[in-house]
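hey so i finally got around to running the thing on that chain from the lab meeting. sorry it took forever, my laptop kept dying and i had to restart like 3 times. anyway pasting the input first so we r on the same page abt which one it is
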Amino acid sequence: MQIKHFRSFRDSRKEIPMKRLSAALLTLLAASPLAAGLTYRFQTSTSGIQSSTLTGKVTVAAPNMRVEVLHGDGILFQDGQVVLSKDGSQTLTVIDPASKSYYDLSLEQTFGGANSLLTQLGGSVMITFENPKADVKNLGDGGTIEGYPTRRYAVTFSFDLVFDAMGQKMRSRVTTSSMNWMTERIGADAMSFLQLQGFRTGIDAVDKLMALQATKINGFPLKQVTTVTVSQPGGRDVTSTSTTSVTGIQNASVNAQELAIPAGYKKVESPMDKMLRRISAAAEP
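ok and heres what got predicted. didnt touch it at all, straight out
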């Protein structure tokens, strides 16, 4: 009897810590749920009006995404910033660990807001988008990139950008030509905001073109070469070319905390909102 009693006591001493450990693990998992995802690195090099190189690491568990900016372009993104999105990159939250602050950036609101501002300057300045055209061609086998088979697509869209300032019109033709190496082995929902084919700008004519090209291209872009040309009166063309490549693709478990704004960070005004506010204030009589 004594031996039996001793064994029961001994077994209960082992059982209690195991229950506590199990409870602790469940609590930890509940607080930081993991989701199946993907990680990869990207580099975007731009030449033309201004040369820049943007590099970073993407962690995605669609529709959530985290982009760590390793080397910023010095224009929109700075070294060490983190960009989060919960809606497939339509809306971005830019986090700056150095200042412990963040701001939101909507691609549609940004472009739409700029367009709206120009149309509200007392009727003195108007901007319109005319003669939109788009063309998408499937060029077939694009070879293997990073171990993935690809197909190559050529995409071209263009429109006239017309400024009307107090009756004086200036017309420029904007043409975007891109070559895209796509793989269907990775879903399109893994694309970052730098790779999007169909984001909305709030400008109807441009959005229709974006939507058209998005429906004709399948998969995830492993490489993109995009050239934007603005043809101005007098033959003065301005050209910019960007090349984006993806490397180091890996499956990964994504912690929910990686996709959240850190506690204690303060929301601030975005650089785009600041610029639009200054322009609006300067235009007031």
